[in-house]
Every structure is written in C-alpha cells, then in structure tokens.
Amino acid sequence: MFSDESTFCISFGNQGPKVWRKRGEAQNPHCLKSSVKFPQSVMVWGAMSSAGVGPLCFLRSKVNTAIYQEVLEHFMLPAADQLYGDADFIFQQDLAPAPSAKTTSTWFKEHGILVLNWPANSPDLNPIENLWGIVKRKMRYARPNNAEELKATIRATWALITPEQCHRLIDCIAAVIQAN
Fold first, then answer.
1. Is 27 exposed, middle or buried (0-12, 13-18, 19+ CB in 10 A)?
2. Where does the chain cross the membrane (predicted)?
3. pLDDT at site 124
C-alpha cells in the first residue's frame, strides 16, 4: 500500500485561456482576469494499492506525529481492510519527520504492519505521486468556490480512480525497480 499527502488549491486549473491584445488594450476589461494571491487550499492524505484507492483524509493542520498516527488509525487501517481484507501487506510512506518518528515505528510494530524501506528524495518512484497528478489533471476544469466544494470535487474525482489505473502505476514502478 502506497501513501502520501498532496495539496490542492481552489485556483488549481483556473488559469483560463491566454489573452492576446493589441497595443493600448492593456486595461480593457476583456483583457483582464482576476486572480487570488493566496488561494484557499486543502491538504489530503490518501493511500492506494493495485486493488484500488482507500478513503481520503483531509488534514486541518501541519502533520505532527500524533496527527499522523491518528490518520494511520482512522484511515490507513480501514483502507488496508478494504483493499486487502485479512491478507498481509507492506506499507509505504515518505520519510518526513512524522512518519519516520520512533513512536510511529513503534505504532507499526504494535499493529504488526511491515513498512517498506523507502529511499530518501524519491517522490517520482511513489506511484501515488503520479496518481495525485492524475486526480489534479481530471480536476483541471473544476471551479470550486470554497474549501468545501474543493473537498467534494477531490472526493468525486478520487472515487473515479479504477483499480486498473492503480495497477498500471504500480507496474511502472516495479519495472523501474527491476531495471535497477
């Protein structure tokens, strides 16, 4: 099972078309587009396997060890049940401070979960990074007006991800690993 967080902005994909204008038309209302300097955003944790995606967790604050372990308890464990049933699995996480903390390592041991030894600074090897990119591309034309609409759009788009898509992403990583 691969996991990671991603940030989504309300203005994501709202760049709109480019405007070509003639000299002297710089202030013409047809040539102007409003923008937001600091758009609202949401941070999302998710997990995937070759069997599909698990439930999303929208994070309200910076992730510390306690919050991360709550995410594991309330979102990763249900995702594992949903995706694997009673079968054993290996969990992948990034090497940020909360996931790599000693107390988090203890949490995994107490729950009998094997954690994949993941190389540092290798986000392009994590298939969920590519999955976040797919979700963002599918949301390209969405126009959420607030954080709640953005969350609803993310949930709806995430729900459209098929196990076949996840399986293909994981196969790509397996090929990279096999090629050394």
1. exposed
2. none
3. 66
Rounded Cα distance, 80 and 89, in Å = 8
- The low-confidence residues of the chain, meaning pLDDT below 70, are 12-20, 30-39, 121-124, 180
The residue type of 42 is V
Report yes or no: 8 and 44 within 8 Å, Cβ to Cβ: yes
Nearest to 57 by CA among 165, 154, 143, 140: 154
Element containing residue 57 per DSSP (H, E): strand 57-59
Q: Which pLDDT does position 36 carry in this prediction?
A: 58
Confirm if 147 and 40 have CB atoms less than 8 A apart: yes
